[in-house]
Amino acid sequence: MAAPKIATATRIIPTSAHILYKEGHWQIRESIGKFIEREVNPYVKEWENNCLFPAHSLFRSLGQLGVFAVNKSIDCGGLGLDCSYSIAVAEEMGTVRCGSIPMAVAVQSDMATPALALYGSERLKAEFLRPTINGELVSCIAVSELHAGSDVSAIRTRAQKIGDDYVLNGTKTWITNGIQADWACVLASTSADPPHKNKSLFVVPLNSPGVHRSRVAHKLGMHSSDTATLFFENVRVPAHHLIGKEGKGFEYQMQQFQDERLVTIAVLLKPMERCVEMTREYTKERHVFGKPIYENQVVHYRLAELQTEIESLRALLYRAVLERMAGTDVTLLASMGKLKAGRLARAVTDQCLQYWGGVGYTWENEVTRLYRDLRLHSIGAGADEIMLSIISRMMDTK
To answer: Boundaries of each Acyl-CoA oxidase/dehydrogenase middle domain copy (predicted)?
Structure first.
């Protein structure tokens, strides 16, 4: 895939960003940012009200910008760039005025496709990965089950080898992009071996006989995200749709989690900064007892603290990315960052909303939307408690 034509960046670059980003990163961010302001943000309210955004048309446009290609090798249709470019893309996607679309994009670029890019056969890459990178197909990752969210080893979905096919049975839930997706990267047990050694990943076209979808409705937030439950009833999956080796699925999934968590941190930075800035502006305009709310020391001090926390999280993220690029195992840093990001998103949105008073309790307020949307990040991609478990375990081994 040819590198996208990208306009020269003109924005003011924060000093801290020079730690990680060079001119090429800012050119990509500038291109994506202009697209978001022109083709995404004007329609966010409509898509939120409809509880759906047009994934196929939007992903085709994002594919043309190279959004799904930056972290994929050239030999499978990507741009062959390092992981810092994935972080740059994720940060810029945070300028979307809701959480649903950045999450859906991250699923396609950093959750459903990494194992396929690293371990898939050339046949699978040609049929599924290349068109997904180009935005011609929409993908989803089907790991979670009702009783097995953070505990991936506890999944019950099974794939039994029969002749030249695997026969897939089970149910996956909380599947982002699941209603509109063309294919799913599905984790299933394929043997009676121990839980960490009996799982495999498959590419499953979602128009296959025996696949049924049901929409998860009435979520607290992420309203324009199509979240599905996928039912697999004797679905025949050709053996060549196996990603990599049988029994390696759990290992492949664990490898992918660290980059997923770094992207999750990156995508939260801009929404949190926007929340603080909108609140700062509002409290300067809103008067109580004859003076702007902002002039109360408790208000401007608290906003200053929140902005400091956001910048500290950015520094942790950039350190983790630099170490990841140097070949270091960043499981500890990624887990710390993910924990901090989820908790900080809760603090920022809750405390900013408080300063909006009754206006903050209205449905259409963007701060209120962020309050609803960002709450998910203490649950998804590994709940806070899982991050604490990883961090404490790694501390004990030092």
So the answer is: 140-235
